[in-house]
Write a structure and sequence with these properties.
Chain C: This is High-affinity branched-chain amino acid ABC transporter permease LivM. Chain C: Its main location: membrane. The complex is a heterotrimer of chains A (about 300), B (about 280) and C (about 450). With about 300 residues, chain A is mainly α. Chain A has a single domain, classed as Orthogonal Bundle (ABC transporter involved in vitamin B12 uptake, BtuC). Chain A has 11 helices and 4 strands. The longest helix of chain A has about 30 residues. The radius of gyration of chain A is 20 Å and the shape is globular. By secondary structure, chain C is mainly α. Chain C has 17 helices and 4 strands. Chain C has a two-stranded antiparallel ribbon. A two-stranded antiparallel ribbon of chain C has the order 3-4. In chain C, helix 4 runs antiparallel to helix 5. Classes of the chains: A mainly alpha (about 300), B alpha/beta (about 280), C mainly alpha (about 450). At the A-C interface, helix 2, helix 3, helix 4, strand 1 and helix 9 of A face helix 1, strand 1, strand 2, helix 8 and helix 15 of C.
């Protein structure tokens, strides 16, 4: 039981991170119908920007708590802004010129952009992984190992931070999409881009903003990943990206709550699989889920079914 | 007795198609006579294309039976067959409301693809074809000849090697019919073949359809809005409205049916009641 | 006129300044500061500043944009317009395939002798190795072209079949001591079976979903190879894979060797040349079969499937089987290439079969022009050959590779050779079909 509880906590934490990345996939897929392959690498860039900021500002766990929180918020904002510029640039250079063209072309440029980002970071930041001293050590001990297993269940402060930040962002973000004119513009572009532009919506700007929002959420995920795991390298984007995409598909691509739900499920599946079966095959578990969902339920959990028109 | 009651090629019995709560077709029964040109007409949204999609296997009907009686006395229950088998085995071919040609392939290639199954057999499921066996060359030559014949028939022989997407709209419609004919059907289902055609093209279409019926012995089931086409060439007209049959008979009978007039032109409510009383609804 | 040109200049500068600012935002942290574990800091991260690099990057963006703005984008007579006039018209490329194929073929056949006479036996080794590598990618590209180019099925996990082929040979040789020539067809058949097994459940998926599931399968196979230590050796891979023999003659020094049999002086280059001809032959078989299939009903059905799947079904084509044959055949050629790779390297490990390989092969197919056999050759020579030659900048290789992928696609979204040749002609002089009319498939 204690073991189960611990896995649950870990799974939800990991799932939150996946969910944040998945939103970027789901929004971009919803609006322009392409898999933004470079999104995982945008997440990685976001993590690096956070890392550099943390090291530059000398943020450590020994700071006074208030100052630490203030510094982290500042880092979060700057990192969101800078990562957004990366997301915007990728869209501007690699995708926008190909809008309305051949469907495979943006997929290839997306893979190309992913290669460029990975290798750029490898060159500029070095290939070695970057360990960071834990920023937020400690946590609550939920169970002192009283059970027969003697297992200690811990909920660390960093896990609380991740779950809280994700929840707040999700609520804010859903409101943004559902209530504002920007959200309306996005939804109209999803439905019919040509008609939207005829009705005076700046389609290019709306799409750019979608990438910017996706990238800023990915950068939050990057910072959370950094805080949680304490180590990053230039290659974290690929696997996290594929899993987040899996999450987006699992939840029903195009659906925001779906992305979050999918993220949580993938996080839980992965953690439980590692906890109960084998760590080596956790990726196989995630990928198999993806295949199974797509084969038997292509619209995902919360997506709308696609009707074949004859 | 009319051919559709004593010698039907296709019998549709109690066909019902529901999409969720929406009843697109409700308990529809009618026959298509062998050697006839049968027209399925009705206002927009009456469920005509849905009937086609059920007949050709693109939709699985919720209820009902669709039986194809081939000339060799074989019977096929179409509602149980996957779409490609309906074309291959039951010999029902179709065209589409929004033309579906292989745009990047030439006219000739389009017609060759339609003869896929016999050619596949002749090529020994590709293995014989790779080694270039003589029987395959012979079959291929015959297929090209059939394609040439149809291209000539629709007046597009000159453009045999041009991509299909380059053709003007009316030619594309005729090519789609020729392509369907190349699959050797006994029943040809045409979804609005005259849509978007000018009067001259419409006339050419009529003669093409009459040729197909008379010379090829293929029965035709068509959906059409253009009444000049329907009244001129069809032997049998079935009228749908809101997924139900409201009239069934010769063009002359249908033309004078008050329910059809009501459905098409609309009448004051009292008159509908009156008509409904007359026909006993 | 002058006022107009001045305002044009001003707007160009403004635009370039904006570009420079964005570059500053992009590069200030990611390029200007490097977080590195500094020596003597007890494993702590420190920052290494490189403002010079940022200045250069921002400068390049600013001036690059300024020049482009002034002379290309906002100029009255863009320089590119003049350059385009000097370039041959796209239509004149349509005949390229006709004479380019024989030229490439002759060049490919005599290549080892050209290299030998120019660089000598030992000096030519490096170039022969490169030629083998390029030809392997040509073969893989041709194999994938069946799936993506002809049938329009987007496969992002093609490397899985390459891996299946390589491991089939390695394991069959390791456990049963079978020779290369027996394993080669077996590897192809096994890969094709895997193709059918993986393909069957997923082929009804459309578009990007198919792409992502194939990617997932590719990764699953790699992870299994990585972790099934007892059987595959895990990350250590399999070494000591037997080399192929020339009809039973080993490439060895001594009485029974290939050199002695033919009365030649022993040279290690013989084996390399043999491997080169082996992969060339395999690639040519792939090409021959593909060209042949295009003219057969099955090939035409693939292309029809790419154009319109619903119409295919209405014409009695079993689309599932048709897709499966494309998938299986592509997988088979991938399997052949894989077992060649195993015998050439003598050592394989899961590291050689990452997603990046799939991406590179797909890039070759798409950059060359979907469905174009000659396009694959050109793309493979440029992307693989070109990069191996600038080994000195190995660090920047993949970066440039990625940039080229983006650049070529933006420049020519349909690939380098994009016209489609009809598979049959009535008049005997059918013209190439412009890519704008050709569909790319939904699967």
């Amino acid at each position: 039981m204690e073991y189960f509880l611990q896995q649950l906590i870990n799974g939800v934490t990991l799932g939150s991170i996946y969910g944040l990345i998945a939103i970027g996939y789901t929004m971009v897929y919803g609006i322009i119908g392409m898999i933004n392959f470079a999104h995982g690498d945008i997440f990685m860039v976001g993590a690096f920007i956070s890392l550099i900021l943390i090291v530059t500002l000398g943020v450590t766990a020994s700071m006074p708590l208030a100052l630490l929180i203030l510094a982290l918020i500042a880092i979060l904002i700057v990192s969101m802004a800078l990562t957004s510029v990366w997301g915007w640039t990728v869209e501007r250079i690699a995708y926008r010129p190909l809008r309305g063209s051949f469907r495979l072309a943006p997929l290839i440029t997306a893979i190309g952009a992913s290669i460029v980002l990975q290798n750029f970071v490898q060159i500029s930041q070095g290939a070695r992984n970057k360990p960071l001293q834990p920023l937020i050590p400690g946590g609550f001990t939920l169970s002192e190992g009283a059970g027969e297993s003697g297992f200690i269940v811990q909920l660390s402060y960093s896990q609380i931070l991740i779950i809280v930040v994700t929840t707040v962002l999700m609520i804010g973000f859903t409101t943004l999409i559902n209530k504002t004119s920007l959200g309306r513009a996005q939804r109209s572009c999803e439905q019919d881009r040509k008609m939207a532009s005829l009705l005076g919506i700046n389609v290019d700007r709306t799409i750019s903003l979608t990438f910017v929002m996706g990238a800023s959420l990915a950068s939050v995920a990057g910072l959370m990943f950094l805080i949680y795991y304490g180590v990053i390298d230039f290659y974290i984007g690929f696997l996290a990206g594929v899993k987040a995409f899996t999450a987006a598909v699992l939840g029903g691509i195009g659906s925001l709550p779906g992305a979050m739900l999918g993220g949580l499920l993938i996080g839980l599946i992965e953690t439980f699989w590692s906890g109960y079966f084998s760590v080596e095959y956790k990726d196989v578990a995630a990928f198999s889920i993806l295949a199974i969902v797509l084969i038997f339920m292509p619209e995902g959990l919360l997506g709308k079914p696609e009707v074949e028109k004859v | 007795m009319s051919s559709w009651t004593n010698n039907p090629i296709l019998t549709i019995e109690h066909l019902t198609m529901r999409f969720g709560g929406l009843v697109a077709i409700g308990d529809l029964s009618f026959n298509v006579g062998r050697g006839d040109i049968t027209a399925l007409i009705g206002p927009n949204g009456a469920g005509k294309t849905t009937v086609f999609n059920c007949v050709t296997g693109f939709y699985k009907p919720t209820e009902g039976r669709i039986v194809m009686h081939r000339s060799n006395k074989e019977k096929f229950l179409l509602e149980r067959m996957p779409d490609f088998k309906i074309s291959a085995k039951a010999k029902v071919a179709r065209t589409f409301q929004n033309i579906r040609l292989f745009g990047g392939m030439t006219l000739l290639e389009n017609l060759m693809v339609a003869q896929h199954n016999p050619l596949m057999l002749a090529s020994g499921f590709t293995i014989g074809g790779i080694f270039g066996v003589a029987s395959f060359h012979k079959a291929e030559k015959e297929a090209v000849d059939r394609a040439r014949f149809w291209l000539d028939r629709i007046g597009l022989l000159e453009r045999a090697d041009a991509p299909a997407a380059d053709l003007p709209y009316g030619d594309q419609r005729r090519l789609e019919i020729a392509r369907a004919m190349c699959s050797g059907p006994e029943l040809l289902c045409l979804d609005e073949p005259a849509a978007g055609l000018n009067p001259k093209e419409s006339g050419e279409l009529n003669s093409l359809l009459q040729y197909i019926r008379a010379e090829q012995g293929t029965s035709i089931l068509l959906i059409e809005h253009d009444m000049s086409v329907v009244m001129e060439i069809s032997d049998h007209v079935v009228v749908l409205d809101y997924g139900e049959k409201i009239s069934d008979g010769t063009p002359e009978e249908v033309k004078n049916d008050p329910k059809v007039i009501a459905a098409y032109l609309g009448v004051p409510d009292e008159e509908v009641d009156l008509v409904e009383q007359e026909v006993g609804l | 006129m002058s006022a107009q040109s001045e305002s044009r200049f001003v707007s160009a500068v403004k635009d370039s300044a904006a570009g420079g600012l964005i570059a500053l935002a992009l590069f200030s942290l990611m390029l200007g500061m490097k977080a590195e574990v500094a020596s003597g800091m007890g494993g702590q991260l420190g920052i290494e500043y490189r403002w010079g690099a940022v200045a250069i990057a921002v400068g390049v963006v600013f001036f690059g944009r300024l020049i482009l703005n002034l002379f290309v984008w906002k100029a009255e007579t863009p320089v590119t317009g003049i350059a385009a006039g000097l370039m041959p018209k796209a239509s004149s490329f349509s005949g390229l395939g006709k004479f380019a194929m024989p030229v490439f073929l002759v060049l490919a056949v005599v290549l080892p002798f050209l290299l030998m006479s120019y660089y000598g036996a030992s000096g030519s080794r490096r170039y022969l190795d490169l030629a083998i590598l390029v030809t392997t990618y040509v073969m893989l590209g041709w194999g994938l072209n069946i799936v993506v180019g002809l049938a329009g099925l987007l496969d992002l996990g093609y490397v899985a079949f390459y891996a299946v082929g390589a491991y089939s040979y390695a394991l069959l040789a390791h456990y049963f001591g079978l020779s290369f020539w027996i394993c080669l067809p077996l590897a192809g058949i096994l890969a094709a079976l895997w193709g059918i097994m993986l393909g069957f459940p997923v082929l009804r998926l459309r578009g990007d979903y198919l792409a992502i599931v194939t990617l997932a399968f590719g990764e699953i196979i790699r992870v299994v190879l990585l972790n099934w230590y007892d059987f595959t050796g895990g990350p250590d891979g399999i070494s000591g894979i037997p080399r192929p023999s020339f009809f039973g003659l080993e490439f060895e020094r001594g009485e029974d060797g290939f050199a002695a049999f033919f009365g030649l002086d022993y040279s290690s280059v013989h084996r390399i040349i043999f491997l080169y001809y082996l992969i060339l032959a395999l690639a040519l078989v792939t090409n021959f079969v593909t060209m042949r299939l295009r003219k057969l009903p099955v090939g035409r059905a693939w292309e029809a499937l790419r154009e319109d799947e619903i119409a295919c079904r209405s014409l009695g084509i079993n689309t599932t089987n048709t897709k499966l044959t494309a998938f299986a055949l592509g997988a088979m050629f991938g399997g052949f290439a894989g077992s060649f790779f195993a015998t050439r390297q003598g050592f394989i490990s899961p590291e050689s079969f990452t997603f990046m390989e799939s991406a590179v092969i797909l890039a070759i197919v798409v950059l060359g022009g979907l469905g174009s056999q000659i396009g694959v050759v050109i793309a493979a020579v440029v992307m693989i050959g070109g990069f191996e030659l600038i080994r000195e900048f190995a660090e920047y290789r993949m970066l440039v590779f990625g940039l080229l992928m983006v650049g070529i696609m933006v420049w020519k979204p349909r690939g380098l050779i994009s016209t489609r040749t009809p598979s049959i002609s009535l008049s005997g002089k059918a013209k190439g079909i412009s890519a704008d009319l050709v569909q790319e498939g939904h699967g």
